Amino acid sequence: MTAKLTICGAGKSYGDFDAVLDCSFDVEANTIVSIVGPSGCGKTTLLWSMSGLHELTTGEIRLDGQPITAPHPDIGLVFQEANLLPWRNLIDNIRFPFEIKHTKPDMEWIDHLMDRVGLKGFETRFPRQLSGGMQQRAAIVRALSLRPQVLLMDEPFGALDAFTREEMNRLVEEIWLETRTAIVFITHSIEEALFLSDRVIVMSQQPGKVQSDYEVPFARPRTQETMSSREVFDLTNLIKADIYGATTHQSKAAE
């Protein structure tokens, strides 16, 4: 399978502190890759480096073989918070990136996305009139409206309640099945990672390194029956042991 995004020896330091060290892996086209690991292991730092918002200290990240040295028009980003502008209504928030780029939005595609995520009819609502889940749906539409080749998602559903979070996970899978946009998804939830992903990458405690890379072999769309299976249970426990083992090892090394 062709690599869409290549992370090659990526490292990010802040003075004497190594946040991320020598990370290497590929994100293939038409796949979802989740990154999990202990808090503070550099997941978000690595993701922001993929977006071009953070300059690497060592190594490089390539999109279709070309180094990423600045924010790239073919890479979309969904943050932990929706970051909608409160003085703009929903549709104007979604159009905002086009205003910055001085380009004309594809309203037919945006209307389709709005309908797909269940926001049709809410175009003139303001962020304060929307639930957290609806705001994150709008953030996904805003990112996908530009038709990115890669979508980076930084714990976008961490602040949502369990029911809404599960609903949003199913929405992401449905949209991915339609668009096949390569996605890198940061999460603290192993269950969320296994539901969404084709691969799950485990990062070690500081400095963040790629510790393990798991294939997720379950058929799509992922059903409740699949996610309740013994195979998912076993893989969840394997990844948990991997993460907790890394944390324990780091704690002992610091003593």
Structure description:
This protein has 255 residues and is an alpha/beta fold. The chain folds into 2 domains: 3-74 and 151-254, Rossmann fold (3-Layer(aba) Sandwich), CATH 3.40.50; 79-147, no CATH class. It has helices spanning 43-51, 90-101, 107-116, 132-144, 162-179, 190-196, 224-227, 230-254, and strands at residues 3-14, 17-28, 32-36, 58-63, 66-67, 75-78, 150-154, 182-186, 199-203, 210-215. The strands form 2 sheets. It has a 6-stranded mixed beta sheet, with helices on both faces. The chain has a 4-stranded antiparallel beta sheet with strand order 2-1-4-5, with helices on one face. Strand 4 and strand 5 form a beta hairpin. Helix 2 runs parallel beside helix 4. Mean pLDDT is 92; it is low at 251-255.
Count of discrete domains: 2
CATH superfamily of the largest domain: P-loop containing nucleotide triphosphate hydrolases
Q: What is the SS-derived class?
A: alpha/beta
Q: For the residues shown, what is the average pLDDT?
A: 92
Query: C-alpha Rg, in Å?
Result: 18 Å
Number of helices, where a helix is a run of at least 4 consecutive DSSP H or I residues: 8
Instruction: Please count the beta strands (DSSP E, at least 2 residues each).
Output: 10
Q: Sheet with the most strands?
A: 6 strands, mixed
By CATH, the architecture of the largest domain is named 3-Layer(aba) Sandwich
| Beta-strand percentage range | 15-25%
Instruction: Supply the CATH class of the largest domain.
Output: Alpha Beta
Fraction of residues in H or I helices = 25-40%
Low-confidence stretches: 251-255
Q: Give helix and strand order, one letter per element, not per position.
A: EEEHEEEHHHEHEHEEHH
**Major sheet strand order:** 6-7-8-3-9-10
**First-to-last CA distance:** 44 Å
CATH fold call of the largest domain: Rossmann fold
